[in-house]
Amino acid sequence: MSVHKNVKKVTTHTLQEMKNVGVKISMLTGYDFSMAKIIDEAGVDVILVGDSASNVMAGHETTLPITLDQMIYHASSVVRAVSRALVVVDMPFGSYQGNSKEALSSAIKIMKESGGHAVKMEGGREISESISRILTAGIPVMGHLGLTPQSIYKFGTYVVRAKEEEEAQRLIEDAKTLEAAGCFAIVVEKIPAELAALVAKTVAIPVIGIGAGNGVDGQVLVVHDMLGINNEFSPRFLRKYNNLYEQMMQSFQEYIRDVRSGDFPNEKEQY
Ligand code: KIV
Q1: What's the pLDDT tens digit per position in 64-107?
Q2: The domain containing residue 268 runs over which residues?
Q3: 11, 117, 144, 226: which has the fewest C-beta neighbours closer than 10 Å?
Q4: Is 50 a pocket residue for ligand 1 (Cβ < 6 Å)?
């Protein structure tokens, strides 16, 4: 019998319950089987198969190039590793902005072919019809407001969003719209902490922040960033829990030395 048979799986209802009783939600990105297995066994509540895979896995400058099929490949690898966490899959750029029918068929393809448990979409009022339509198929939707990387060419920079009153007000209205449309949670990215806390108070659904302070219902980080694998990315909001860049570099260099010197493999490491 699998050791995970009796694990209580995290659902969208679990997350709502956590908000209701004041327990913070932990979320990390995951893109592959091996990493997702460790993240899940560590007890993270939500694994986001983020379209940040476009950056950290494929080396693109933005999240725009990643395709629906590539997201499904990453998501299915994560789903195979996970026993407990809720797996949320980003709908990639171009798979839902056209119209609500296209959005629904993209969401169905993700759910059918990856085995993920929910989808995430960037945007506010402009995607509310698509959210409602996706929900009619029984697919849970997580919203994403504030810095929305799929719109980078509209905004031009990755700076903090909604610092001005008008944009802050619009963001609060969008959060209410996403809640009314039926989203089970909302990610808020890189907005002032005070505004994020106000959003979390205004809507009843969980609000999960990245670069949005501590007044929200949970936190999300890109796993490669928090492990310090990427040593060129150090924004103020990022807490690095390791310096894997250094550790991996050391291991690779030691291996190269051992191969070159003939020290590896030794007698015990051969047949
Ligand atoms: O794609 C991603 O990793 C995300 C998080 C930053 C929230 O959307």
Answers
A1: 999 999 999 999 999 999 999 999 999 999 999 999 999 999 99
A2: 244-271
A3: 11
A4: yes
